[in-house]
Amino acid sequence: MLHLRMIVPPDRTASAVDLIQSTVGTTHLVVLPGAARDPVGDLVLCDAARESADELLHGLRGMRIDQDGSIAVENIDLSMSSRADTAEEEAPGEGADAVIWEQLAESTHEESTLSFTYLSFMALATMIAACGVVLDNAILIVGAMAVGPEFGPLAGVCTAIVQRAPRLAVRSLTALLVGFASAILVTTAFSLLMDQLDLFGKEMLDGPRPQTGFIWQPDAFSFVVALLAGAAGTLSLTSSKSGALVGVAISVTTIPAAANAAVALGYGEFAQMAGSIGQLLLNLLGILLAGTATLLVQKTLWRKLRGRFSRRPRRG
Prior knowledge:
This protein has 316 residues and is of the alpha+beta class. Helices cover 65% and strands 11% of the residues.
C-alpha cells in the first residue's frame, strides 16, 4: 500500500475527494479543511493500492494539485486493516507488477543527475575494473560492475523515450556520455600512474587473460546478455525490487569495457581499445532496447487492465 498526503486548494477539494472515492483500490480517506498553512489549503490523506496509484496520481495532477498545492507519496511498510486488505483485493492486477510512472520519472531523474557523486562512482568503478583487467581478476570485475551507477541514466533514457520526456532524455544522455568519457580519462591517467609505480605493465595487458579477455572481444552473447540484463533491470526498477539491481549490475560489461579501453589507450593498444569500445556500445544498445521495450509492454498491459477496472463502483 501507498500513503498519499495532499495539500489541496479548497475549490478543488470536493473534486479530489470524488476522484479518490471513485478510484478502485483506495481507502482510509481523511479530509482536514483548512489545516494546511504553506501553501494554504485543505489537508487530504488516503491510502491506495500500488496498482491504483498511477491512475490516481494522473487524475490529481490533471487538477493541477501538484502545481497549486502538493502531493507526497510514501510506501507503507505495514498496514493492519481489513479495509486496506479489501482495497488491495479490489485493485486490478498485482502490486509487484504495477508501474507508477510519476515515481519512475522522479527516481530516474535523480539517478541521472550529473553530480560530483555520480562522476566519482563512475571513476572509482572504472579504476577498480582497470585493476581487474590488468590482473585478470574476475572478482574485481564483478565488484566494479556492482559499484557502477550507469544503470540510472540508462533507465532514464528508456523512461524518457516511453513517456516522451525530452528533458529527461537530454539529462540522462548527458550524464551517460560525460560519465563514461570522464571515467575513461581518469582511468587512463590512473593506469599510467600505476605503470610508473611498476604495478601495471603492458605485458600484463597483452598476456593471456582467460578471465577477462571477453571484455574487449564482443560477440553475439554480449548483446543477448545485455538485452536480458536491460529487461531485468527495468523490471526491478518499476517493481521497486532494488535488490535485483545488484544481480543486473554484475550481468553486463559496461564499466569493465570502459576500463579496458582506458588502460589500452594508455599503452597505445588501439586494437584492444576499439574492441572495448565496441563491447561498451553493444551493451549500452542492448540495455536501452530491452529497457524501452519492457516499459512499452508494461504500459500497454496496464492501460488495458485499467480500462477494464478503472473507476468501477466500490463495495460497501
